[in-house]
Every structure is written in structure tokens, then in C-alpha cells.
Amino acid sequence: MDWTTISTWWSRTATLQILGILLLGQLVSFLLALMSITSSLIAQFGVDAPLTQSLFTYGSLALVYGSILLYRHQKPLVSWYWYLLLGFADAQGCYLVIKAYQYTSVTSVTLLDCWTVPWAILLTWIFLGTRYSLWQLCGGTLCVLGLSLVLFSDTWDGGGGGGGGSKPVLGDVLVIVGTVFYAISNVVEEFCVKKKDRVETVTMLGVYGFLVTAIEVSVLELKTLKSIKWSSDIVLAFAGYGVSSFMFYSLAPFVLKLSGSTMFNLSLLTSDIWAVVFRVFIYHQKVDWLYFVSFLVVAIGLIIYSTTEKKLVPASATTEDENLNTEYQILNGENESSTFAQNDSLASRGKPHWKLDGEASLG
Predict the structure, then answer these.
(1) Where are the transmembrane segments (predicted)?
(2) Do the domain assignments include residue 88?
(3) How many domains is the chain partitioned into structurally?
(4) Which of the residues in the chain have pLDDT under 50?
(5) Residue 80 CB-density burial (10 A; 0-12 exposed, 13-18 middle, 19+ buried)
């Protein structure tokens, strides 16, 4: 049974598709919460090495998925500079967000990390041609307004309401800037896994992410690594982050392929709830009342977006898969005739598109 057959069956079972995406999205969300918790633990142990954390993750991705790619003897389907952009953007996003744990609380980081949603909406609108209904945009805006309450909480309480942090506002700013890089990474990865090959995408993300991070570690963190007094707790925290992040990056492409960048990031909103559960039951910390108001506002925005998802603007725009006029190498088992028919139809529309076999272009 090839991927085309599976995709055809999957598309005909709408209920199973929605249920599967929701469950898979929640599993990825739980893994993201674990990454947040382990990063917070590492920061509490006095270790400030966010690049080193990511280095282990990228290295494991490159090693495991690179072995599969080498076994296939498959030629690269995407030009190297697109993967460099993917690796660089993801590495910077990881660095800034993990660095923020040194200054603000785990709940603030996981909440503000959801700023990736509006950036993803903007980037998919511009580069992938995705069109959203007015209700969807209202739902996304409401989510952002709810998340902004965290900034007020940290500003008023000096981090006390957020569960600690020496410079909570600085930490919040680092997270927001990091989400811009995360959105770029998500959109590029979405395009690659939908139009190219998932294993190659994850492999190259690991390879270029490792190279970029290794250079930055040699410049920024060598002294820090030498000064760390390693203990079993620190090693276990690093291992926990490495395992959870490896699983996160392994499952994320499936969600991106089935639902897209925006719904992927909306699914991650529940990681905030997991983070609060961890804080209350593991850290025994109090949560400021504004966080609960923030959860309520975000939940309402998410419901609005989800219930109006099928009401996309149909006249002038289509989904990501229909808008992209892409020239690429056909994978084994893929329906070649339907792919070329789709590309021929779309070429006549003159829609904006990306061409990843050597250059980026506008129709």
C-alpha cells in the first residue's frame, strides 16, 4: 500500500481524519510541554546553554533520519539553501525561546510561544497562498489578545505571578522574537513535507540545524560549558529534553502535512494547559489569575477558528496544495499523472508560487 492509496482512503474518512489530526496534534503538544519543563529544569540548575540543548537534538535527527536517507540512495529534492533557511530559522527560534527560560517562567514561555500562530497565518497567506475567512482571522486575533495578558501579568508582578524569573519582560520579548523564526521554519517545513519528502526534510533540518548551532556554540557557549558542574540531575534533564524534542520533530511533519502550519500551531496551544498542570502539581507554584483569563480568551479564539475552518474563501483562493505550482521529482508510488494535471491547471492561474528546485519565483 503506497502513500497515494493511504492518502485517498484518509481523505474519504473525514471523521477519522479530524480525530487523527486532533490526537496527533495533542501528542505533539504534550511533547512540547515536556520540552518546556525540561528546559525550565535545566535553567533552574543554573545551566545557561540553550544552543547545546538544541545541538543534541539536531545531531540525533541528522544521525537517525540521515541513515534512512543514505539507505534509500535518494537524490536531494530541494536546493540546499532552502534547507539552510529552514535549519537557521529553527535554530534561532530554539535558541531565543530556550534562552527566555533564564529570565521568565515556564508558563509565560509556553503561552507566548503561541505568537507563532499569527506569524504562521501571515506567512502562509503571503507565500503559500492560503486564504482564511474573516471568522478565522477573528479567532486568531482573539488568541493573540488572550496571550497578551501574560505580558501584563509579568509587567505588573515583576515575574511573581508568572512563577519566577529575574527579567520577565526581557524573557517575554525573547520568546516573541523566537516565534517569528519558528513561523518561518514551520512554513518552509510545511511546504517541503507536502511537496517533497518528509524523511529528507527532517534529515536536512537536523544537518543544517546542527551546523548552524555548532558554529554558534563555539562562539557563544564554550566558556559556559567549561564552567558547568555536571551532575546526574543535569544529565537527566538534558536527556529528557533530547528525547522529547526528537519525538517532537519526528511527529511534527505528519501534522504539518495533514493540516498545515496554522492548525499545527493552534494545536500546540494546549501545551499551555499541560505546562500549568506541571507547574501546579510538580513545582507547587501559584498561578496568577490573569493566566486563567488568558486561557479562557485563547480557548474562545481557538473554538471560533476551529468551527469556521471549513468556511475558507473559495472564490479567489484555495488550499496550500492547490495554490503551489511546484516542479519536483515524483516520489515512488505517487500518482504522476494527477500531479502533472494539477500543475498544468494551476500554471494557467498566474497565482504566486514557490519553485524550490533552484529558485524562488512569483508567477
Answers:
(1) 18-43, 55-74, 80-98, 110-128, 134-156, 168-185, 234-256, 262-282, 289-307
(2) yes
(3) 1
(4) 159-163, 311-363
(5) exposed
